[in-house]
Amino acid sequence: MFGPKAHDDHSPTRRLVEALKETQMAKYGEKAKEKVGAALHEEKRGTLKSGRSGKKVTSRKQAIAIGLSQARKEGGKAPKAAGASRRSGARSGTHRSTSHE
Fold first, then answer.
1. 38, exposed or middle or buried, with CB in 10 Å at 0-12, 13-18, 19+?
2. Over the stretch 35-55, which tens digit does the pLDDT of each residue have?
3. Does some domain include residue 96?
């Protein structure tokens, strides 16, 4: 375990991992990158506002989420929102019957 093979950069698994990294597609497209950059810039200047309430956004994470959302709406390449699958699945399993028979 601590021999010369422990830090071998030429092992088959190491080469496979490196090859997969090189051929892997990008998760985010150019439009997503531009929108997130613009949202972060607005957040930094204090002019970025949230959609519904219109309150000023002060969180970098929220600014990134807003930028990605805008990119998705315009057809940019960005993965689905993390909470999207959880939100839709949670509602179907919580149906309660109101009749007590």
1. middle
2. 888 998 998 889 898 888 888
3. no
